[in-house]
Specification:
Molybdenum Cofactor Biosythetic Enzyme, Chain A, five-stranded mixed sheet, Alpha-Beta Plaits, 17 strands, 3 domains, homodimer, six-stranded mixed sheet, alpha/beta
Chain lengths: 413, 413
Amino acid sequence: MNAQIVSIGNEVVAGVIADTNAAYLAARMEDLGATVVAHRAVRDLENEVMAALTAACDSAEVVLVTGGLGPTLDDLTREAAAKLAGVELVEDERAAEMLRSFFAARNRVPHPVNLKQAAIPQDATCLPNREGTAAGFAMEYQGAKLFFMPGVPREMKAMFEDEVVPRLRERLTGGGNFRRTLLVIGMGESDLGAKLGDLMQRGRNPEVGTMVHGGIIAVRIIGRDKDARAAQEKVEADVRRIREILGHSIISEDESPLPFVVAKLLEENARTIALAESCTGGLICAMITDVPGISRFFLEGVVAYSNDAKVEILGVPEAILEKHGSVSAEAAKAMARGIRNRAGADIGLSVTGIAGPGGGTPQKPVGMVCFALADDRGVIAREERFGGSRTDIRDRAAKYALNLVRLRLLGVV
Amino acid sequence: MNAQIVSIGNEVVAGVIADTNAAYLAARMEDLGATVVAHRAVRDLENEVMAALTAACDSAEVVLVTGGLGPTLDDLTREAAAKLAGVELVEDERAAEMLRSFFAARNRVPHPVNLKQAAIPQDATCLPNREGTAAGFAMEYQGAKLFFMPGVPREMKAMFEDEVVPRLRERLTGGGNFRRTLLVIGMGESDLGAKLGDLMQRGRNPEVGTMVHGGIIAVRIIGRDKDARAAQEKVEADVRRIREILGHSIISEDESPLPFVVAKLLEENARTIALAESCTGGLICAMITDVPGISRFFLEGVVAYSNDAKVEILGVPEAILEKHGSVSAEAAKAMARGIRNRAGADIGLSVTGIAGPGGGTPQKPVGMVCFALADDRGVIAREERFGGSRTDIRDRAAKYALNLVRLRLLGVV
């Protein structure tokens, strides 16, 4: 099955945003065993949209379209699709009902202009949007199947997975690609590449590739075979080899993000945690509280930016701050013990460092961060240096801290 | 000047990587006063590359091409370009010399296959690559000017800025586009569209478009005119009208994110702040501490997930939690007063709510969030409902809270 991807929107074409939708859809289509032959991005202009759709239908059996389904005047994908099919736009009852519920849940009444988002070309099939107000739709044109989805990535992804994939499966004849992704922390991409060696050889099947994002490396293993089961077996064999090589550096084998992995370990070990953050400024708390149901394991966090807060809330002895400074292993240990005692938690975790851009010294440069973890086995401390911007340093430090909890709960440190 | 962008490479088309090159080039071309009319991405297949280049030349005076200039067999952009022009590939002396120096500087000798990267179509102009080994080139085809650059973003950017931009400037006749972006909070995209009305009319110049991301709407005004000054004046006139219509809903006129706007207001008003967060779980602290130098204004934050923490650290009376519950305006007020007193801050801000997915009741459904702000003028409280996922509810609540501080510092509430 050949597929093309068409992105509609002035912001994409003018480079205001990068077209991540196209990459997502292309990767998913390849996973499903389809071959993506091209992408195109065109502006919100009716004739250009129509021309792009027509050209895409020429060389593909499936055309995935995103964008231009908003409520404002500059959104005209549905008009262009209707014109292409030579039909009128009609309000879809189910979509209108969903739109009204969406607004009702937010104590709002839809503006008449919003109801435009419930209109689809006559005879098209409505694709409900459970994440937003723009209805999608599926239609056929010149023998190709077209799926129109919103440009908002969250809405697009939900609609693609829930509505488009099941409709494509009928057409995909088994076989295809099998993909696994392992998330790895604690090393650079080139070090990882050296460790994996021949697994990453070009042209090999499965194909093993790495991609780094926010200090975490995704190792992607894609196996291809006419037989779906054989593709999976090839991939699983690689996963076993990679597991042997990387050990505890693998955070998750199911793409679970680090905070979710830590939350699961807290639950499995029936441990509670409390946090004392300085340079990460609440980032670790924010990451861990993104996990639903975490309130059973996460008790409290203190963002102790000022020394006063460190002394008064966490009970850090002033003598330690005076002697070692607030960025020191000693201060971190006192903060970890302090928050553990204050909250009555099983684990107290602390971070203190210099996120920059100012505040660095030759002894304590920007990027230096101290960590401590206190539990019933004692207190451990770590000192690390991180590079990059303020945002990078805070992000890497927050993940390092969460990983320290993970390794402690696994009994590795 | 109309421009098209063509990206060549299996990785882009199959979604292994997102096409950030296209976004970079499009944004730079628009800045330079050109109009980007479309992007396309095609695979490393000679006939598909030739077809894409031909189609792009049909509707653009300038075509920017990236990718397919590597040393391996699957890179065939230069072969496709030569075939299109009906000429042979010839080794460019300067490019070959640069390539040899590149390897020499790394104590390596180029493999014969590398010299392929110094070949360009006969009569094309070589575009030297100071960041890598692939030479770029410029050529004309059917009246359009084509620029071929490597796919590696660092190499592409250097070549574009050093080699392509100077060659385009001759053709750009002064004039061009002028762009402003206003960030707006506190309304839906459709409400905003209704308020802006005819400003968003299709085909109008300036073009006014909206894009929503994380509850914040970017209103983009792009004016086009042969005279650069006239373009700017058109845009500024629109900005004045939008300012009258939207008033304090405009967070910033220079794309400053909300936390930076709040930090600036704290500085201008010489006020300190302390935060008490429940459902947002540290997110507001994390957002505000992302601003460099914030430690002068942000004193501390408490993530009081448990009632114990609310009572012990913030001094919230147990009677309030028992009578009204921890998600109530009364609890929010006590938290705001409590953190203000504890920290000795000018402003105490609190958030307590139900982020879900569990924990909702008919009276207090998921998405209900209470806010309070305590300062020397008293205590104000707000109750809001937010929709979406747990992540969305937390994000919107954090921004609502920061906006409450902004409005208070502006004297609006």
